[in-house]
Amino acid sequence: MRALNAEGDIQPTARRIAERAGVSVRTFWQQFADMEALLVEATRRDDEILHSMREPIDLDEPLATRITLFVRGRARILEHLTPSWRAARLQLPFSAELQSYNARLLATAKAEVEKVFAPELGKLDDSRRRQLADGLHAVSIWSFWDSLRSELGLGPNQARDLVRTTCTALLAEAGFC
What we know:
Elements: H1 2-6, H2 14-21, H3 25-31, H4 35-53, H5 63-91, H6 96-116, H7 118-121, H8 126-138, H9 142-151, H10 156-173
Helix pairs in contact: 2-3, 4-5, 5-10, 6-8
């Protein structure tokens, strides 16, 4: 399924998935109760991939370096997982399990923003801290990335540079760059 998603087929049939996997449709259905079960398994695998791709960022690095490292790492993950997440997004409204996964993913992404930029966020009052954290989070999540790539037609490097520039502008507006 992941290979078919990567080729642009974001709603492959069980038959196409079974053919690609080299198994019978019957074997496919013996492994997965329904297509949602397959998507849930795919998101579990995506989670493993995501965690393996994360690289820690030293908070002692200068802000410009942390911005670059954060955006480069986030862009690499978002670009790699986009095909699977596009497929999962179609089922999201109908799956409590996928909704739960998405909520956890967003919470983890926001926690990463708050950790990487803790030195700056810690200097702000609660209202400004929340606003800056929300802004940095909003421009670094998959839905924003997908919009840059699919709706604006930016290439991966252009999208990454725009996210970096936007993060820098948000931090500068708050008085940090």
